[in-house]
Amino acid sequence: MRIVEFFESASLVIGEAVHRFNLEDDLRESENRLRHLSSQLLAAQENERRRIARELHDSIGQSLAATKFVLEKKVSQLNNSIAPPRGTLEEVIPMIQNAIEESRRISMDLWPSVLDDLGILSAISWFCRQFEAAYERGANYFLVKGSATNEEILGLVESILSDSGFNLQGSKR
Predict the structure, then answer these.
(1) CA 108, 48, 58, 68 torsion-angle sign
(2) pLDDT of 152 above 80
(3) Which whole-number Å values give the CA distances from 155 to 13, 112, 163, 167, in the listed order?
(4) Per-residue pLDDT tens for 66-91?
(5) What are the structural domain ranges in the chain?
(6) What whole-number distance in Å separates Cα of residue 158 and Cα of residue 164?
(7) pLDDT-based confidence at 15, cuts 50/70/90?
(8) Residue 143: what pLDDT?
(9) Measured distance CA(155)–CA(41) in Å, rounded
(10) Cβ neighbours around 12 below 10 Å, total
(11) What Cα–Cα distance (Å) separates residue 110 from each residue in 48, 53, 113, 124?
(12) Is 169 left (phi over 0), alpha (psi -120 to 50) or beta?
């Protein structure tokens, strides 16, 4: 009888040890997945930073550099001559306006204020209008109610329209 009791208690201890080992293994696997997801998130953030930096350099940086050169030329002409320089400083205004519009576009691409100000339906409508303007095609949309957050829905719509636009550009070639 004592042997049976011993084996019963031993089997309980062994069962608990196996269960604990499995839990620890699951925990290690979960930690590995978390580390992997964390590294993917950091990589995505770095890629987005690179994209923003390129856009800032390519659009706003060039507009501001051109504006600076025009202003330097006008100042030099004013300093070196008694006669007024050809052209006026009004030529600089479109360059500055372009830089302002580019900074607004980049800001809106990063986080459209329409989502915060007017809600998800207005944000989707805004993205659809942007899509229509960029690709000259109508963008019909449907909002499926579910458990997704506004930001998730907006990100999905933005991604769908961006991918569609990319494919449309490719089909024009």
Answers:
(1) positive
(2) no
(3) 50, 11, 12, 18
(4) 888 888 888 887 777 766 666 677 77
(5) 1-110, 112-173
(6) 10
(7) confident
(8) 43
(9) 15
(10) 10
(11) 9, 12, 9, 15
(12) alpha
**What is this structure's pTM?**
0.41
Cα–Cα separations (whole angstroms), residue 97 to 115, 123, 139: 25, 25, 29
Q: Which residues of 158-169 are buried (b: 16+ CB within 10 A; e: fewer)?
A: beebeeebeeee
Distances (CA, A) of 54 to 5, 51, 73, 103, 112: 73, 5, 27, 13, 20
Instruction: Annotate 53-84 with b (16+ C-beta within 10 A) or e (fewer).
Output: eebeeebbeebbeebeebeeebeeeeeeeeee
Rounded Cα–Cα distance for residues 64 and 98 (Å): 9
Query: Residue 141: its pLDDT value, please?
Result: 45
Where do we find the tokens 């997945």?
33
Residues 132 and 138 sit within 8 Å (Cβ to Cβ): yes
Torsion angle defined by CA atoms of residues 84, 87, 90 and 92, in that order, rounded to the nearest 10 degrees = -110
Nearest-5° angle of CA 136, CA 139, CA 141?
175
pLDDT in tens, 104-127: 777 777 776 767 777 777 777 777
